[in-house]
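Predict both folds.
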Amino acid sequence: MPVTEPFRWRMLDKLRFLYGNQADGILRRIDQLADRYAALRCRAARPLWDQQSVVLITYGDQVRAAGQAALESQRQFLLDYALDRVISGIHILPFFPYSSDDGFAVIDYRRVSPAVGDWSDVDRLGKSFGLAFDFVVNHCSQHNDWFQRYLRGERPYADYFLAVDPATDLSAVTRPRSTPLLTPYETNRGTRHVWTTFSADQVDLNFACPELLLEVLDILLLYVQHGATIIRLDAIGFLWKQIGTPCMHLPETHAVVKLMRDLVDDLAPGTILLTETNVPHAENVSYFGDGDEAHAVYQFSLAPLLLDAFLTGDASPLSAWLADLEFPGPGMTYFNFTASHDGIGVRPLEGLVSGPRLDNLIEGMRRRGGLVSMRTNPDGTESPYELNITYVSALDTPAGLSPDHHARKFLASQGLMLALRGVPGVYFHSLVGTKNDTKGVQGTGHNRAINRRKFESDQLRQILADGDSVQRKILDGYRHMLAVRIAQPAFHPDADQTILSTDDRSVVALTRRSLDGDQQVLVLTNFGEKPVTLELKKLVEWHVRRDLLSGRPVENPRYELAAQDIAWLV
């Protein structure tokens, strides 16, 4: 069955914008794709999200055991620690054959890396959890068969990549790295300088080629066929290139995302497109479009603002940012997170904190063993792009906190993230309390390795067997918070959120109200190093009775919130 109304006309408009008079022929090819994946339409449409929606971000080979597929080892680990009771979905970072960047230089988009397992292991994991797949759509590995055929000049692959005369002025192009934008490769047509946004091994794809678009749409539907309910579009902002522009967030890029949205909404309603754009907030939320583009966008400003608040004890920039956040509308939500496989971007702080305050944050992370990755500016200078540090180490002190204090402070950061409007994403290393992996950096020479440690299953279980360790305290505390969170209707991603004013700059206060209005939760976070006493009657009109996290009753209208702690009050 071909593409149905009204998606057909929506797609045709976008195809005409992108490819002119080729649009009708391309749409006929998309009809063939729709026929091939017609069985997807037989699946029951699912709700996009609810308060039980919690996504774990992890590598396919994050936990390994001898003689077993890594995906199966991880599945058993998650089940053994009863995480299937509190986590609804698993975002498996790229699990395809790759050549660098821990998976983000894909050699073959259609195969599972033998180091991880095979499609049957992915399917087995999908029986216990919803699945999110990474689609590294901006670039592929230089070892990908597409690029090897490009080098040989084969059609249509000769148009899959973009070569540019190195004399061309490309100074306007947005750069996330300090590496060269163009990389010379020898082809059967001579030397070609190929566009490589992220590294010489990661060659950018040319979406001005319709054949490439069709290939990408086929892969998108293949992932949905294999059970992906969330498709994460990696580095999507860089997708379309037009010399003389920043080549970032171009209208053509948005049109491609909208085409993908039309396709999944038609064939597999309930599939979520999640765009990853590590940029200032206003640029980030542009990927919601008019409710016709991404279903969810990463909330990149949250992670550095939380760190800034804990480092300074002043949460006023965080409170102000939260107060300005708007509900994106039905069918759209924020993907809230504090840590991921990447570093903590600092561009999302632009306009939110002062220059000296940003400098203070950078220096504070360096004192905690963190590293700083740079990017090249249009004038040739360099500036900080991201902080490379585990979130657990970022919330320690240079002298080191006690395990109890460290776990409480870290869990306070996570508790606020979990309480905010949107769907929470929890990085595996945050769940198990991993500290900086300096040996990983030394072994690979890459800053991001500090937050990408892989574990042997027995090794990780042994670490977590120590009940007095900060790692086990964090795991136990995190599981408890998640169990409480998923039982609260007020934490539905669409539920109302109101930021409250307090007399203390160290406190963030907000309420969440369930969609039916029957439940309200008062969320209080103290970022300061001293306890704070709050007059509850000044914050909310309703009578607070207990703390959901501790289970203790709240009897006194003057509530004392411990230093660097959080409370969920009802």
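Second protein follows, with its predicted structure tokens after the sequence.
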Amino acid sequence: MKPLYTEYCTVSGEGEMQLHVPAEFNYAYDVVDRIAQEDPDRRALVWVQDESCEMYPYTDRHERTFCFSELSELSGQAASCMAAAGIGRGDRVILMMKRHYAYWYTLLGLHKLGAVAMPAVHMLNHEDLVYRIRVTGASAVVCLGEKALCAKVSAAVADCETVKKLFTVGADVPGFIRLDREMEHCAPLAERRKTCKEDPLLLYFTSGTTGRPKIVVHDGVYPLAHIQTALLWQNVRDGGLHLSVADTGWAKASWGKIYGQWLCGSAVMAYDYDVFSAVRMLDVMRRHHVTTFCAPPTIYRFFVKNNLLDDGFGDIEYATTAGEAINPEIVERFSAWTGLEVHAGYGQTESALLVADFQGAPIRVGAMGRPSSLYRPVIVDENGAETAPGVSGEIVLPAAGRCGIGLCVREIPGLAMGDTVWDGELYRTGDIAYRDADGYFWFIGRVDDVIKSSGYRISPFEVESVLIGHPAVMECAVTGVPDEQRGFVVKATVVLREGYTPDQAMTTALRNYVKSRTADYKAPRIITYVEKLPRTFSGKIRHVEIRKKDAAGQK
């Protein structure tokens, strides 16, 4: 069958996209069940479990391939089982399922009920989980049957009155309904439940790089906004196999592990691991003939810094990256090894893809790419006026004007619901960039991360991009430290590769390395060494945490 994205969007030869969304569109019924009816044996999900997983193997097999007819039936059974437990339209359900294949049919089952899925990472502590339950009024939790995870969920629920049901998969746990076993006794939903495109579909929390995470709710149109992600950026192909490296608790999973890929005819891979091994991941990708690949910059750094690409990159035809800005040095070395370009993409938990190296457009290494036709972001100054080329400002989405589905004002496809995301007539991303004369955006940093030193505005990312090129540096984060004379001075927090010594000679070498490749005033005056950098649950470096430690006089 022809990929279904053609029924929901129009794409012009210039990459312009418009969506056409039926009033009662529901991804689980209109995409998954539709494919299951017309092409039941089409491959949907390839799941491979790594030996590092606590529950290895979950079943008698550690690899499984699901076709659409299987996922359609399983999601219908999951919906019936959860409905029998009292879950219905509008109920909020937390999913803490790592990369287990049950996530896919459970998520789709919630879509069929019109319930709101709340994907969450398993690393949440007690306070994180209680906070999420209380502010959302969550009524149920579905989690893996791992003892520590179930104990954490049970403790959090004891402090929250709204949660009425607990489900687990993979193991029997007292106090939890064993969803995957109960489903065996449930027939799939007999009839389609009433839902509409404006219904809340997904609820995420932001990654919290600068403060406490806030709620982000997406409606039923959100899956269709990721047609652009899969088709025009990841370049997935009909019959291919796409791997996006992401935990299902991250919004990135919605970008690369289900919606746009299936709409465009590609299957998705779930590589399930607890301890990351770049060597084992490459082996899995080669063995299963993954055709398109997306990962955060951290993964590319592992491949490059550990010299793992001598044998190429398997059957990968197209490579993309998102989550953070990627350093040009890493891109150039990766491309030299594999012959593949790395296509950058930028968006937020609140949106789909905002800026990217879209298919067919020339890449400028180090740039973020060019604006999405669905969102048309612009860069504005402190007064809200669009900046000239070369002048930095904040990336925003204007509320006024036309957008991808031909609507005006605030009805933008794939953007979070509610007025809380708006500041007057602007959606502010909090990210600083500039555009060049050809319309490419160039990332500078978060609003709070840009360093002002002796009258200069210094991009932490620019300094990090230079430092990462030194053979001794595995990772680094650049921040500003208060200084009486200069306002702030540049500080680098560095993770060294194995075999290098964090001494004064190394500090001098790194400082001179930066000076030889950029202006003297950008070179770090302070360099400290750590074993690892503080990160959000989604893997982004928490510059704010480093700044807080500096302010407290810690290193």
